[in-house]
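User: Can you write out an input/output pair for a complex, sequences first and structure second?

Assistant: Here is one pair. Inputs:
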Amino acid sequence: MFDFGIWTSEFNRFLLGTGMAEWLAVLIECIIIAVLVLGAYTVLALFYILYERKLCAWFQCRLGPMRVGKWGLLQVFADMFKILIKELIELKGTDKFLFKLAPYLVITSSVVMLACLPWGRGLQIIDYNIGIFFVLAVSSVGVLGILLAGWSSNNKYTLIGAMRSGAQMVSYELSLGLAILTIVVFAGTLNINELVMQQDKAWFIFRGHIPAIIAFIIYVIAATAETNRGPFDLPEAEHELTAGYHTEYSGIHFGFFYLAEYLNLFIVSGIATLMFLGGWMPLHVPGWDGFNAVMNWIPSIVWFVGKAFFISYVIIWFKWTFPRVRIDQMLAFEWKYLMPFSLANLILMAVFVALGWHF
Amino acid sequence: MSDIKDKILKIYPAAEFEQGDCLLVNVAEKDWHDFAARLKNELAFDVLSAVVGVDWKESIGVVYYLTSTSRAWEMLAVKVVCADRENAYIHTVSDLWGVANFQEREVYDMFGIKFIDHPDMRRFFLRNDWVGNPLRKDYDANPELNPIRLEDEKDEDNTYTLEEDENGNVKRRDYKVFQAEDYVVNIGPQHPSTHGVMRFRAAVDGETVKKVDVVSGYIHRGIEKLCEGLTYPQMLHFTDRMDYMSAHQNRHCLCLCIEKALGLEVPRRAKVIRTMMDELMRISSHLLSFGCTAMDLGATTAFFYGFREREMVLDIFERTCGARMSMNYNVIGGVIADLHPDFRKDVKHLIEIMPSRLKEYHKVFTGNIIAQNRLKKVGHLSKEDAVNYAITGPSGRGSGWSCDCRKKHPYGVYSEVEFDEVLEYGCDSFARYMVRMREIEQSLRILEQLVDNIPEGEIRAQVPKVVKLPAGSYYQQVEASRGTFGVFIESTGEKNPYRVHFQSPCFNLVGVMNLTCTGYMIADLITIGAALDFVIPDIDR
């Protein structure tokens, strides 16, 4: 399988070979990577907007955007251009500093999470030994942005939206963390690269069988809630709170929330891919060497992105099928069912690991 | 009929009777409240169907239409007249019939009649700084008196109640609608799910609703006032613009009222066509309601499914009536145009595919656990409250109250077709929703019986060129998509009506918003509204 690490180390050697200082080489590399990440971020966000609109249209017996470009492919560019040139409206009575800070907090946390994902073999930007823990920590910064946005807007809708969002994110982060912890117990590592390499024989969802499948289902539910998507889209429930915490935002500040929301969908799908479906690892079945070789021909980045898109598809499918839950039902679901269940599942996984009942 | 006269004379010997299309009793104001209480408690007139203010120039007063559910839906009109036009006081009956609360506020707004002991004597539609009472005959419509005001309404929290002491002096006691410590969330008039320009102010405790205050009148067009200046054929088209989801039924009602007054016999073909159109309209309305309920719960996909089938009904309307909304199809004496040649084929197609589509709705939405949890045990409205607040139509039937006007006072050809009155006993939003879904099936059943039995013949009766109703007052009810729709016409024998009142079902529906929403959550306020299914132009006539 092709290792993208060859390119990066080759480039590093080339920069050093020109005789420049090491700090300068690292700086240049960092800038290039930053540009690439932001580029990937934008492209993915645009793709996701179109992806959701087309999928939703399909579920709803419609065509979706069709006018701009072939099959409406250029619609998202038009939308992005519109959002860029829109006025940033200053409101009376808002906390100006926090109001402007909030969208940046949200988008920063989501960009950093994007950088942690294992895109392909050797294509990983941030690789700590506590990788997955770092991702969870950074994801919590996003909720701070949402709370600030709701608070600083000085509007009752946004405040209720933000409070709902806070309650929701804090609650569902527990299940999300426990589902991930279940796999960490199984794998014995927090390092993202190692997590992927361990799935060389077979993906965790197959190796860990029953507890891993339960953890996967819990993860997908909790991730849907973490991304504020239907049926858990209460923070922005447009039928009750017009637009929830971002009611008062306009222009690119609104755009940041909007983009972050779509990118968070990709990120939680990416983490699900990493933890349960092998990350960029192709589908390997122990013993089927020919099959495995064929699978290896498909580039690792295609595997990762493809799997993430599939999980996003499932989450989008949820949104366009289910009605929205109510705040008390949502919290009761988490605290009375999902969290005890994920705790029990964690113990189950520990027992399985201790007794070696896995592949 | 003489039986009821005797009974009334027994409890109120001074009663004077007039015989119109239903028995009318004249009652002196000072005796009205006691008489009303005895009518309710002893003669079982448990429903206050309509409260109609009328300005007779030399005097001003109110006509109350009462219905007795236990006595075969017998109706009785009671007229209360105030001689003093400028200081007109009538005792409220909102303590007896909950529905009178908003109804009397409307009368106060439009006629300036003040109701003693009414708990909340604010204007209902107009701003509190509006000069004059528009439906009075001496109203000055000079635009300089009421310019377009660019500032917010002041003191909208202030209200008062009028109390009478033993000497008969009326005193005003002011108070506030919301207390200083209430956290009031404003919902509307521009809000995605108030289904129009409706405004609710909800005092919330966290997410729990403590009180809902209804602020109405944002699209009031003064239809009743406009009608007074128009001839009978001219005023027909307003009915399509009140509850636009019950356009056919509303117009049917007005035509029936005028035909009743004229003593006109409508050809049978027209009757069948009207009945079929009413049922198609009901299907279209309930499909919209299904879609909106689903959408207000966040299930946007189900909304599109409902609209997909609604399009078919609208296509049928378009072919025959030439319009998809505001069809303007019924006219005095019949209908305006004959059916499109494809009408029967289209209706048969609809009858054929709808059962499978209903199954699909139930699969996608009704059976969903989240939808059920959101709708069940939410927005409780007991049968007693439904009767007290005159909540008719699917919302009343969801509380187990048999109130279908098609069964109680049959019109059209409803007495000849077989259909069941759908009743649910859940008293919650889910019951109201299910009544609508099951009513679609019943409407299809009616259509199925009629589609092959449309008789040949005239589509409208011969109507005089100038329609003049004999002097008197007339009241007619039909079952619109959202409940009992009533039309009151008072005629002096001229070519235009002296007073027209439309008793719209949605007006009563918003009357129970506070009752049904209190104690539930903000999210429930929206779904309760969706399940009650009010249409704002029907409230703001």
